[in-house]
Amino acid sequence: MTLSAVLTLVLAGPVFDAETPNPFLAQAKELYEQLDFEKCMQRIKQASQWKGSNVRELRDVELYGALCSLNLGQRAEAAERFKLALRIDEDLELPEFASPKAVKLFLYVKRKLRQPAEPPPLPDEDLPPDTPPALEKGARAEAKPKAEPEKPVEVTSNSVLARHTPSITLGVGTLVIGGLGVGLGVNARSLEAQAKASKFESDYLAMRSQAQGNAIAANIAFGVAAALALAALVMLLLNR
Predict the structure, then answer these.
(1) Could you read off the pLDDT tens digit of each residue along the chain, which spans 240 residues?
(2) Is the full-model pTM beyond 0.70?
């Protein structure tokens, strides 16, 4: 066979693709559409290990991995896979048949990635000094002394009435008993006058005896009143 014939056969033969599609990714997409999410994740793991994946396939591996993870209740993993897919292709969009919860999570991750990064913290030399300048120069603000709360006035002695209650009681007793003695004395004199004026001896003796009894009672009352008055005076002097 001549060289020209060999070249003709080679050129007429099948042309091989320089890039073989990721077979596991295609199976994962089919399983996702069939709602078999567990097997879908198995194919996603195999697809991620496929050596010949191009950029678009790597993006779709993370995208469909996120969709299957979310349907299996693995929200954190789904969010992380959405983030990786968006970093590969920032203009990535979800498939038309994606669920509302997938759309919500995808848009949330996409919005977080597009937010501007927080500014770095200021270096220490740009921070203000801990001590105000006035205090650094030696000036010290004088703190106003706090006013001490007023203490309630403590009553250390009894009231005048409480201190002299025994004396007052004895004084009242003196007046009552003294008044009784005066009444008995007046009554005794009246009976004695009536006895002297009586015509019959029996009446005279009876009235005179009653007058004497009242006189004795009056003297006793005067004695008791005097004793109470003395006691009241002593108590008054002691409680001054």
Answers:
(1) 443 443 343 344 443 344 689 999 999 999 999 999 999 999 999 999 998 889 999 999 999 999 999 999 999 999 999 999 999 999 999 988 889 999 999 999 999 988 876 655 655 554 555 555 554 445 454 555 566 666 665 544 456 666 667 777 877 877 887 788 788 778 878 877 887 776 667 777 787 788 788 789 878 977 887 887 788 777 777 776
(2) no
Judge whether 207 and 192 are in contact, CB under 8 Å.
yes
CA 66 – CA 78 distance, rounded (Å) = 4
H/E element, 37 = helix 37-48
Alpha carbon 221 to chain centroid, angstroms: 74
In the CATH hierarchy, which fold is given to the domain comprising 21-114?
Answer: 1.25.40
Cβ density class 112-148: b for 16+ within 10 Å, e for less: eeeeeeeeeeeeeeeeeeeeeeeeeeeeeeeeeeeee
- The domain locations on the chain are 21-114, 160-238
DSSP state of 49: T
Yes or no: say if 89 and 59 are a contact pair by the CB < 8 Å rule: yes
- CA dist 151 and 156 (Å) reads 14
Q: Are 176 and 169 in contact (CB under 8 A)?
A: no
- Centroid of chain to Cα 219: 79
Residue 38 DSSP SS3: helix
Q: Which tokens hold the place of 152?
A: 């309630």
